[in-house]
Amino acid sequence: MLSSEYGKSRKKTKKEHKTRTVHSNILYDRTKGEDNPNRHYSDNEIKTTKYTLLSFLPKNLFEQFHRFANVYFVFIALLNFVPVCNAFQPQLALAPVVFILSVTAIKDLWEDYRRHRSDKEINHMDCLVYSRYKHQYMERFWKEARVGDFIRLRCNEILPADVLLLSSSDPDRLVHIETATLDGETNLKQRRVVCSFLDLDCDFDPSKYNSVIECEKPNNDLARFRGYITHRSGRRDGLYKDNLLLRGCTIRNTEECVGIVIYAGHETKAMLNNNGPRYKRSKLEKQMNVDVGWCVIILLVMCLFSAIGHGLWMYQYGDKRPVFDVLSPEGAELSPVLSAIYLFLTMIIVFQVLIPVSLFVSIEIVKICQVYFIHQDQDLYDEETDSHLQCRALNITEDLGQMQYIFSDKTGTLTENKMVFRRCTVAGVEYSHDANGGAALPEHQVPPQDWQPGRSQEGQHPVQTHCIQQPHGTHLSIITQHTAFSSPMEKDITPDPQLLEKVNHCSSQMTFKRFHSQSLSQLPSDLTDIIDFFIALTICNTVVVSSPNQPRQKVGTDSSSSLNRSSHRDCSSVLSSPSAESTLTKLDEEHHLGGPVGLEHAFSPVPPHTTEGEPGALEEGELRYEAESPDEAALVYAARAYKCSLVGRLPDQVTVELPDLGKLSFELLHTLGFDSTRKRMSVVVRHPLTDQITVYTKGADSVIMDLITLPSTDDSKGKRQRKILYKTQNYLNLYAADGLRTLCIAKKVMTKEEYAVWLRHHLEAETAIQGREELLFQSALRLEINLHLLGATGVEDRLQDGVPETIASLRKAGLQIWVLTGDKQETAINIAYACKLLEPDDEIITLNADSQVRSSHSTLFTHQPYSFPPPPPPSPSSSQTQSFLVHRLGLVIDGRTLAYALDSSLDEKFLAVARSCRSVLCCRSTPLQKSMVVKLVRNKLKVMTLAIGDGANDVSMIQVADVGVGISGQEGMQAVMASDFALPRFRNLQKLLLVHGHWCYSRLANMILYFFYKNAMFVALIFWYQFYCGFSGSAMIDQWYLIFFNLMFSAFPQLITGTLDKDVSSETLQELPQLYMNGQNSEEYKPYMFWMTMIDAFYQSLVCFFIPYCAYADSDVDLLTWGTPITTLALFTILIHLGLETKTWTWMNWVSITFSVGLFFTVALCYNASCPTCYSPSNPYWTMQRLLGEPLFYLLCVITPVAALLPRLVRGRCSSVINNSLSCLFQGPGISIAVRCLVCLCVCQIKCYLSRAKYNRCSRPHSEMLNTTGVVDLTVKC
Asked: Where is this region: Disordered (predicted)?
């Protein structure tokens, strides 16, 4: 007994761990919080700040010390306080690191203060919360709301927390919300009252509420909410996402509503999704960190060398100590070993500048400036959508110039995602609609004549999309600007005359039989299929009917149609599955009464035509359809073109106007929404003409075709149905070959008993918390079987402007482009031809396997000869020519085969084959497969990857790639919010990568190398002096110059160059995309360049040290009088070096260099004049003033920089001459590409010669082969 109770308690604890129980706060006294079961839940106060007044300093320093460079420099500054090893004045040594930490701290403090102001403003917004004591709603701040409070919301108010909807002033118990702040979607969404509160005849009274809510723990899934509500009577109703109003959404079209707070504050879904900007480390930054490590090693070697030298120098004196020897703090003499150890620490302080402390700060400043100028580029602005480029990751701009693989979605990314109704087939007869939206297909969209579509096909039905109508040349109001209406292309549909005549004929026949009370079953099946086809297009969707004058107000039906609704309101919704319990009750009543309740109102002896003078009459032109998907809008407008119009939608009813029949109200019993697993959508309605429970289904053709009842061939009817199936499948193949998106339409008639049985099982699935998705999926499968095929549709999704040209340019830039799409294979292939991803002369390898065994034994993976073009005879050049052969291949693989190919046993083979192909097209890919493909290529090939998409199904691959790009398209903002960069159009990717990416990479790469050079060159000056001072750690340069040389005197010019320098103009970079290979191959920053830079820095330091040394030899100048010219010459050399590296000079470059030189001399003159004994025993008094009066100083300023920079100048000039010569010879942009052209030309000549010997012809021209490898076009032919 005890063990049983213990087991129950453990189960209960486990259950409570997975769920949340919410009680009403009305039942508990607020002053006695310990009695409230909701007391453990988060309050509604938002705090996004990181610091308080007391915690700011320690916490901010702790965060800054996570950066190794800051820790290093603080350690060096503190080491300078140790007397035996200090090199500078301790206070002065702290100045640089304190400055860097202070600037960063001030920036963090300002950002945190802005967050604090925002939090305060949000927390002090007003809301109406029900008071237990005053029995009315009282105004309170948002932060005072608690889980379990009842909140009243009014129109246009923002939700303060996640609220479960219990009451609405809307007669249909609906609430319309706008979720733009959460997912970027501007179309309205409907939320419905919890089913058990639908039948309230009066206003909701919170004091009478006594139910308990059991729901899931707080999570960040915006598309899911599971739970149930238990009433005192024991009744339990399921809770869904359509019952939950999320924090941050705005109430629309509803006077007021009431709900109970479920999640508050930081536990709301909006706050859980607010992760802030993501941090990524760029490839250049990783390489820079490696070189910083080398700088540390060089520093330690120099310090060790100096320590050993000092020890040996001290050792040679033996017992005779030098008169200038410094004793220990205790007054004792130091041994050579101990002196060497102390000197080692001292040299670390002296040489600390070798580690560029300002490099990290400078890089952040330059990246922010680069992002600003990218934002100002008007070429990246789209006037139609009024959207700019967005940069959401500031620290990877340089990665844009090093991309190697691009993974792109198709729908909405390469295409417009604006649908045009092109084709349909009904009852096996095809009807063309080529006049819609202009020409059927551009000429470039027609695939090669010898290409034949395959048999394995599937369609796609996207969800969570919206489309915006924006008339050209006009500025919309705020209301219409955020209304998801269809584009003019979707509206303007020209009906097929033959099909229109059949629709009218069928309607007249139905009207005649209805008027004479005859059975409609006597109609020919082809006619009933036609009318059912358009009824399905009209009602099987989530389209909301709107009025153009008030686009956010839904259109209601007239008073007569409102009487048709049953007195027992079910819980159906256009957005989710309705409640099953009320529907079961209604079915039981009908069973006892012998007929449907209120059925007589659905029939009218005279067709109920409406006229303009009648109340509630609406012309078709006065209605607008607000759709979540462009596909849905196109199909509804297509049905309206055939006079089958959707005129009203209520939660339990859809009103359709048919020709001759007038308005018919379909009782909506259930809706099974579209999902990516089922790939279909179904509605269960009661047909007003036949009183039959009918299921209308639309979805992907491969899925629907498997659910169609295969008729027998024993009778003529069965043979006819098989013939219709065969014809429909052929038409689907043709639609896909034309690049159209296909959907199949089907229906099913159920008896009331069959539907009641299904509904009871569905009720159990709805009320489950654990495994609810799987149970609902299985329930939907039981409903959507044994369907009757009505027809199919073909909708065109047009290419975006500039897509073929963009892909061609990116290919010339050496980028490999893979398209990962959920569309069917034939549709994707046709679009690939249209956007020039596939060329007419490409050899296409199509890989479709139905098992992993067959996939592993595929000729593709085993490299059978026929999979590739015939190889030439064996020759020494065969290895080189093979690359030309495989670059003309295109690989097409479907989703099922891709799942097998991504298995660990086949992934390397798949990758090897894919690398050999010029184009890769993955069809029917799931979001998970997309991310797996990107991850496979990135990890296995060690390449830089970019993923671009526009929908929620692209988020996973966008986040996996090195750089994620979102398109601000028709499918909401999920992809944009998950991306690093957001673009208005796909064509903008060309300039973003080829121009801005190239510039950002080139600027930062050169700036980093310049930093290493500058610091090493300056430190080496002190190192050479150690040979003349017994390695004592002394410096001939004043410590003020040592500390502030990199921080002030030489900092500004490199920031200007790193922000504005352009090695090649924008026009040239776009005309010659091959220049992008410079970044792909890391030509600007290779590992050896670091060492070349360091060698150059040490050489220049030798020149800057020994020329003044020789000039002042045998003179009586003091140390600082000799050291100050060295500092001046080093500054001049460094600035002139930067000028030589600068490709584009602007007035800001001149100003920055002039400012640096002027700042140095100003500080030197003021310091030497005002501080004679600041840091004794050194005496810098009047040093710079005396030097400026000596001709020798000016001579050194001319000779020394020229001698130091002469080798670099000569090398650069020679390299430029060679590059220009080869570029002129081969029409190429640089030496590397020209050399590749030369090699490729030789290989091509050998291949053509061997090919002629065997085949007596050359298979491809030289220019075509060179194009496939990404090098410059040549006009030489074989």
From this structure: 1-42, 437-459, 548-583, 596-616, 861-881
Which of 115-124, 176-185, 688-697, 1072-1081 comes out lowest in average pLDDT? 176-185
Question: Phi and psi of 450, rounded to 5°?
Answer: -85, 0
User: What's the CA gap between 112 and 118, in Å, rounded?
Assistant: 10
Helix (H, G, I), strand (E, B), or coil: what is residue 306?
Answer: helix
| CB atoms closer than 10 angstroms to residue 1119 | 16
| Torsions phi, psi for 343 (to 5 deg) | -65, -35
User: Which of 194-208, 617-631, 799-813 is modeled with the greatest confidence?
Assistant: 799-813
Summarize the annotated binding site for Mg(2+) as residue ranges. 409, 411, 950, 954
State the Cα–Cα distance between residues 813 and 904, nearest whole angstrom.
32
DSSP strand pairing (174-178 vs 162-168): unpaired
Distance in angstroms (rounded) separating the CA atoms of residues 498 and 432: 10
Residue 529 designated active-site:
no
Cβ-contact 882, 851 below 8 angstroms: no
Q: Which long-range contacts (CB under 8 A, 24 or more apart) does 83-91 make?
A: 83/329, 84/328, 84/329, 84/342, 84/345, 85/342, 85/343, 85/345, 85/346, 85/349, 86/346, 86/349, 87/346, 87/349, 87/350, 87/1033, 87/1035, 87/1039, 88/349, 88/1039, 88/1042, 88/1043, 89/1039, 89/1175
Q: Indicate the DSSP class of residue 92.
A: H
One of 409, 570, 797, 1096 is an active-site residue; which one? Answer: 409
Of the spans 184-188, 909-913, 954-958, which averages the highest pLDDT? 909-913
Give the model's confidence band at 1237: pLDDT under 50 very low, under 70 low, under 90 confident, else very high.
Answer: very low
Q: What is the largest CA-CA distance in the chain?
A: 133
Task: Give the Cα-Cα-Cα angle 687, 692, 696 (nearest 5 degrees).
Answer: 65
The string of DSSP letters for 729-781 reads HHHHHHHHHTTEEEEEEEEEEE-HHHHHHHHHHHHHHHT-STTHHHHHHHHHH
- DSSP at 1101: H
Q: For residue 1020, what are the contacts with CB-CB under 8 A and spacing of at least 6? A: 1097, 1098, 1101, 1102, 1105
Are 1104 and 1126 spatial neighbours (Cβ–Cβ below 8 Å)? yes
Lowest mean pLDDT among 384-398, 415-429, 1078-1092, 1243-1257: 1243-1257
Binding residues: 409-411, 632, 674, 698, 741, 821-823, 924, 930, 950, 953-954
Distance CA 817, CA 946 (A): 10
Structure tokens at 380: 């990246």
In terms of DSSP bridges, do strands 189-192 and 174-178 run parallel, antiparallel, or are they unpaired? antiparallel
C-alpha distances in angstroms, 377 versus 506, 703, 992? 58, 46, 10
The backbone region for 972, taken as left when phi is positive above 0, alpha when psi lies in -120 to 50, beta otherwise, is: left
Q: Tell me the C-alpha distance between 478 and 908, whole Å.
A: 53
Annotated binding site for ATP: 409-411, 632, 674, 698, 741, 821-823, 924, 930, 953-954
The CA distance from 763 to 774, in Å, is 14
Angle CA(244)–CA(249)–CA(252) in degrees, nearest 5? 95
HEC sequence for 3-71: HHHHHHHHHHHHHHHHEEEECCHHHCCCCCHHHCCCCCCCCCCCCCCCCCCCCHHHHHHHHHCCCHHHH
Order across the sheet with 662-672: list the strands.
Answer: 429-432, 415-426, 788-799, 740-750, 693-699, 680-686, 662-672, 653-658, 645-650
Write the DSSP symbol of residue 787: B
Return d(Cα 457, Cα 735) in angstroms, integer.
11
969 phi and psi, to 5 degrees?
Answer: -110, -145
CA dist., res. 633 & res. 419, Å (int): 8
Q: Taking the CB of residue 753, how many other CB atoms lie within 10 A of it?
A: 10
- How far, CA to CA in Å, does 515 sit from each of 190, 518, 606, 660? 38, 8, 7, 11
The radius of gyration computed from the CA coordinates of the chain, to the nearest angstrom, equals: 38
Give the integer Cα–Cα distance in Å for 480 and 3.
Answer: 65
Residue type, 43: D
Cα 759 to Cα 303: distance, rounded to the nearest angstrom: 82
